[in-house]
Amino acid sequence: MLNEIWVLVTGSLVGITCGLTGVFLILRKMAMIADAISHTVLFGIVMAFIVTQTLNGVWMMIGAGIAGILTAYLVQVLQSNGLQEDASIGVVFTTLFAAGVLLITLFAGNVHLDVEHVLMGEIAFVPWNTWTFVGITMPKAVWMLLFVLLLNILFLVVFYKELKISTFDPVFAMSLGLPLVFLHYAFMTLVSFTTVAAFDSVGAVLVVAMLIVPASTGYLLSKSIKVMLISSMAVGIMSAIGGYYFAKLFDTSIAGMMATTAGLIFMLVFLFRPYEGLLVKKRKLTNIHEIVVK
């Protein structure tokens, strides 16, 4: 029973943490950069291991942060020199991810650091890998996710107004003298930290899903950023909890089912949200057509 609770807590923390970060990824139209970073941090993780010869979580996060900044910087350089944004992301994503895979093969073949584990993860094993801090013993994944969640909250509290202005009107933000370059790379670093915090437990696939799908669902449901943030976190939690019990019911991958549940929630909102859902609109058009015909 306790192990089940830790799995649910871990999944919910992934949903909350990624939900917070994902809102501004969606609003800033950077969803595909999140996908790229969630894979290119593998390069940073391997480089951190090669340099330190340890899988300590702190060094992994530092390596991931550097890889995230490098990804954002290279995409920006290619884009500013005439390459389209999607092509820039594709080039950087595939190159750094492939480099990470090669480095694992060459220098980390005997270490518990494989591509399948990074991509898919195994959240069911979370309760057995624990850390004790200030006399409190909890799974390592929970400690890391709590730390990154606090970083996310702190960043949003401190830079909320700056992020909001630069997201909707970057020209006005520039005229106010806001540090746009700093905000951009600080935010990319935060995305990298969020990604690597969830790697060991849930893998990159669920991280990408939680970064993009709950925030996209919140976007459909909300008219303000604050409501979108709350909606995104709520959808993340529902996806984690619902996905876990669906996975138990169908005896399948927990992380995969959590991602699938997030997608199902999005589709339900897309089809049936009040006033603007696809099926709701079609029904209204049908009723109007019937009235006109009569």
Q: What's the architecture, going by CATH? A: Orthogonal Bundle
In CATH, the homologous superfamily goes by the name ABC transporter involved in vitamin B12 uptake, BtuC
Uncertain spans, ≥5 residues at pLDDT below 50? none
Give the strand line-up of the largest sheet.
Answer: 1-2
The beta-strand count equals 2
The fraction of residues assigned to DSSP E strands is under 5%
Into how many domains do the coordinates divide?
Answer: 1
CATH topology tier name: ABC transporter involved in vitamin B12 uptake, BtuC
How much helical structure, as a percent, in the residues? over 70%
Pfam families: ABC-3
Main location: membrane
Membrane topology: Multi-pass membrane protein
Protein name: Metal ABC transporter permease
Could you characterize what this model shows?
By secondary structure, the protein is mainly alpha-helical. It has one domain: Orthogonal Bundle (ABC transporter involved in vitamin B12 uptake, BtuC), CATH 1.10.3470. 81% of the residues lie in helices and 3% in strands. The protein contains eleven helices and two strands, in the order αααααββαααααα. Strands 1-2 form a two-stranded antiparallel sheet. A hairpin with a 2-residue loop joins strand 1 and strand 2. Helix 1 crosses helix 8. The longest helix is centred in the C-terminal third of the chain and has 42 residues. It is globular, with a radius of gyration of 20 Å. It starts with a helix and ends with a helix. The mean pLDDT is 86.
